[in-house]
């Protein structure tokens, strides 16, 4: 092999190595760009994860508030039910009192009727006594005149 042939082979190899080096550098640049994109994506994912965690915290706080409100509603419902029970008891007492009033009214109506009937009899008897008393008065005066 001659020196020229050797040089050509060496130059061809060097050229080939340079091309491979250029390709390696381009590949490394692509890898670095890919790594940068991955790092950017990872940052975006981390930011998204932070936003999700913040959202989850807000949801948990909202859920706690809803649970508190639900407890207050349940307490209010219990108070309403107790109030309703008291109202029903009061209605029962009023019904009992109303029944007693109705019964007493019926009794008083009967009593009134009886009293009115007795009063009518007394008035009639009083009229009769007035008539009798009037006749006796006339008789007494007549007898007094005879005596005088």
Strand content: under 5%
Number of helices: 1
Overall average pLDDT:
93
Helix and strand pattern: H
- How far is it from the N-terminal to the C-terminal residue, by CA? 206 Å
Largest beta-sheet characterization: none
Percentage of residues assigned to helices: over 70%
Number-wise, the strands total: 0
Using only CA atoms, what is the Rg?
A: 61 Å
Give the class from helix and strand content and strand pairing: mainly alpha
Multimerization state: single chain
Q: Which overall shape is indicated by the principal axes computed on the Cα atoms?
A: rod-shaped
Number of discrete domains: 1
Poorly predicted ranges: none
Question: Describe it for me?
Answer:
- There is one protein chain.
- With 148 residues, the chain is an all-alpha fold.
- It has one domain.
- It has one helix and no strands.
- It has one helix at residues 3-147.
- The longest helix has 145 residues, at 3-147.
- The radius of gyration is 61 Å and the shape is rod-shaped.
- Keywords: Coiled coil.
- Residues 73-132 form a coiled coil.
Give keywords.
148 residues, mainly alpha, 1 helix, 0% strand
Topology, please?
Layout: H1 3-147
Brief summary of the model shown:
The protein is mainly alpha-helical. It has one helix at 3-147.
């Amino acid at each position: 092999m001659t020196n020229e042939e050797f040089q050509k082979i060496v130059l061809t190899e060097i050229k080939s190595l340079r091309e491979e080096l250029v390709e390696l550098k381009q590949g490394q640049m692509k890898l670095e760009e890919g790594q940068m994109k991955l790092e950017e994506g990872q940052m975006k994912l981390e930011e998204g994860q932070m936003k999700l965690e913040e959202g989850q915290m807000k949801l948990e706080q909202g859920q706690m508030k809803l649970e508190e409100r639900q407890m207050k509603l349940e307490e209010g419902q219990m108070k309403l039910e107790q109030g309703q029970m008291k109202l029903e008891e009061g209605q029962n007492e009023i019904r009992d009192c109303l029944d007693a009033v109705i019964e007493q009214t019926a009794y008083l109506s009967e009593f009134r009727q009886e009293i009115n009937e007795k009063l009518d009899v007394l008035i009639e008897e009083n009229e009769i006594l007035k008539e009798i008393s009037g006749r006796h008065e006339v008789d007494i005066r007549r007898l007094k005149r005879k005596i005088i």
